[in-house]
Structures are given as C-alpha cells and as structure tokens.
Amino acid sequence: MARFLTGRLLDLLVVLFGVSVVAFLMIRLIPGDAVQIMLGANSEVTPDRIAALRQRLGLDQPLVTQYLAWLGGLLTGDLGTSLWTGRPVLEEIAARIGVTIEVTLLALAVSVALAVPAGCLMAYFRNSARDYLVRVVTIAGVTVPSFWLGALLIYLFHGVFPAFPAIGFVPLADDPVGNLQRMLLPTIALAVPVLASLSRIVRSAMLDALGQDYIRTARAKGVSERSVVFHHAFRNAMIPFVTALGISAGYLFGGAIVVEQVFALPGLGRLMLGAIAERNYPLIQAAILLVTAGFVVVNFVTDMLYAALDPRIGLR
C-alpha cells in the first residue's frame, strides 16, 4: 500500500509540473501583447514607454527566466501579482472560486443522489419498459451540452415563472434562500449530463455484479431480491462508479466555468475569460494551474478510495 501511495504522489507531482509548463507557455502563444493591451491605442504610446512597462513587469526577461521566477514563487506560495490591478493573484482567485466550488458541489451532490438509485433501478428492472425509458432519457442527457441546457432552462423558466430569479448571484451568507434559488438552474444544467453518464455506469456495473457466482449463491439461500440487488451487488458495483465519479468531479469543475457565463455567476470562469482577454499572464497561469491541480487531486483521492474498496489494488 505504501508503494502504491508513493507512486501516485509522484505521478501527481509530475503532472502538476507538466501543467505548470503548459499553462505558462499557452497564454504566451495567444496572439496579442499584454503591454500593448494595457497601454491601449494611444498616440502617446512610444517604444520607450512600452519598453519601460515591459521591464517593470518583468516581461523583458527570457521565457526560461520568467518561468523559473514564477515556479520559485509557486514553491513559496506566491502565485504572482495581477498585471492590471496590482493585487496578489491568490486574493483575486479566492474572491471568485467560492462560487465555482458551490455550483460544482451542488451539481455533484445532485448527480450522485439521483444516479445511484436510477442505475440500480435500471439494473433491477433490466430489459423492461421502465429500463428502456430511463436509458433513452440518459442517452439524451449525455448528448445535451450544459451551456445549451442552461440557456433553454432560462428561456423556459422566464416564460413559465417570470418572477423566478434565473440569473445573477446572491452570497449564501447574505440570503440563503435567494442563493439556492439562483443556483437551482445552474446546478440542473451542470448535473444532467453527468447524472446521465453516471447512472448508465451504475447500471452496467450492477448488471455485471448480479451475474457473479456469489449472487447466485445468495439467491439459492433464499435472500430477498431487494437485498441481493441493494446490499450484495451494490458494494462491488461501487468500484467502477467511484472511478467515474472522480473523473466526473473534474468535468463538473471545468463545466462550471462555462455554465457561469450563461447564468452571469461571478465565479472563476468570468475571471479567467477576463484574464485571457487582458493577457493577464500571472492570473491566468495561476487559475489554470489551480483548476488542473483540483482535477488531479480529486483523481488522487479517487485512487485512494478505489484502493480502499478493493485492497488488492494496493498490492500492484
């Protein structure tokens, strides 16, 4: 188990290092120059002013030097300073990331709460009319993009419930009811594709578990069908579900950044898009790194849960 844990930690560090390199280079490959954007189309902008601002921001250094300086800051907890506001990047991200985390956790909770019973029921009533109906619905859910579903929900709710607050944001601490009202539609839009995918995975895993010898033995002993499905088969079916859940959590976090634009939520997505438009290198680098690090950490935790559910994995 110790070897398994060490290997996963090393993998995590290698991935984060690779992401830091990609995040650093990617924003600099986008056409446009941060200094030119900051100075704007002004007749007083001279080459000397451009050179002075570039030197003040440290953008006149070779890319390798800039990267090593940024990496050194990361190792000490300094994510840099915003080129536009002069505030620490960590402060700007901290002020926005709470919204993204909230809608992600709500969507994840809804997905898990509905996917597990839906998948179990599809397996229990396999090849029945109810099974086919739910499978058709899940296929439709998988194919629907979250941003399109979000726009459709806004249109429908505005037509049916004009007074319902479909867009905007209210902090949870200021107005819990108002916050949950405004989070309802983004949560649904973000959760539906993941819910559909997870329920199909649960169904497949449950059908596989129900075909095992120990299930036939339990039935031969007179164990009730409900106990066979929801007690004996369910535990083993959770192994592939946990793996898919880790991937889905990362997808939800990334999808939340897009859904925020549809519902005008002041989260990390709007911050990142603004940083890209402004070529705010430190901010977009740190945001990409944090989003990716969150995805990697979630998958690391998933590996640990996988090993806890199946101790044989820790021996590999």
From TrEMBL:
The keyword Cell inner membrane does not apply. The keyword 4Fe-4S does not apply. Signal peptide: none annotated. This is Glutathione ABC transporter permease GsiC. It is a multi-pass membrane protein. It is found in: Cell membrane. It holds the Pfam family BPD_transp_1_N. Residues 97-302 form the ABC transmembrane type-1 domain. Keywords: Cell membrane, Membrane, Transmembrane, Transmembrane helix, Transport. Belongs to the binding-protein-dependent transport system permease family. PANTHER family: DIPEPTIDE TRANSPORT SYSTEM PERMEASE PROTEIN DPPB-RELATED. CDD domains: TM_PBP2 (cd06261). GO terms for molecular function: dipeptide transmembrane transporter activity. InterPro entries: BPD_transp_1_N, MetI-like, MetI-like_sf. GO terms for cellular component: plasma membrane.
